[in-house]
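Lab meeting, item 3. Inverse folding demo.
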């Protein structure tokens, strides 16, 4: 039985020798995708686009906050000299404005997060396409990304992919 196991191990090792010779010809690269997602010119454009898209709503929220603050200040300052009815009306208006502000803030946050996720998805697809194109053009057999503990500089292709993204962004 031991002889059979030894023969099988020897046969397996003998058959694996050609595969080891072929492994020397494999070209491997590594990309740091977080660097690409942060430094790609498309990321900066997406950020600017989101700022433009949501700036008017942000200004409206600021206006609503100032209005609520003004009502709170008026209530604190004048509540002693106000009639009971006027104070109750002012408190109702303040509460209604607070609810409106909270609702608008929640809607704004939800919409902004949704759009950020959409833009991030587009950027991730673009980065992946650029990595694949760089790998094909430069003859890489394997390109690794996340989960790599160490990558030597000679297999690091993040810079080349970033250059490709910059050329695509023009």
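The presenter then showed the designed sequence:
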């Amino acid at each position: 039985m031991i002889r059979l196991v030894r023969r099988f191990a020897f046969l397996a090792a003998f058959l694996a020798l050609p595969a080891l010779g072929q492994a020397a010809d494999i070209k491997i690269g590594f990309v740091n995708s977080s660097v690409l997602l942060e430094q790609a010119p498309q990321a900066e454009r997406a950020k600017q686009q989101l700022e433009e898209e949501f700036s008017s709503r942000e200004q409206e929220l600021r206006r609503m906050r100032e209005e609520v603050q003004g009502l709170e200040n008026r209530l604190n300052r004048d509540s002693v000299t106000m009639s009971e009815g006027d104070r109750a009306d002012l408190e109702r208006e303040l509460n209604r404005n607070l609810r409106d502000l909270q609702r608008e803030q929640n809607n704004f946050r939800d919409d902004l997060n949704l759009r950020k996720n959409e833009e991030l998805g587009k950027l991730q697809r673009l980065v992946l396409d650029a990595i694949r194109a760089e790998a094909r053009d430069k003859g890489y057999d394997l390109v690794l990304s996340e989960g790599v503990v160490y990558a030597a500089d000679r297999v690091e292709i993040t810079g080349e992919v970033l250059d490709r993204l910059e050329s695509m962004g023009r």
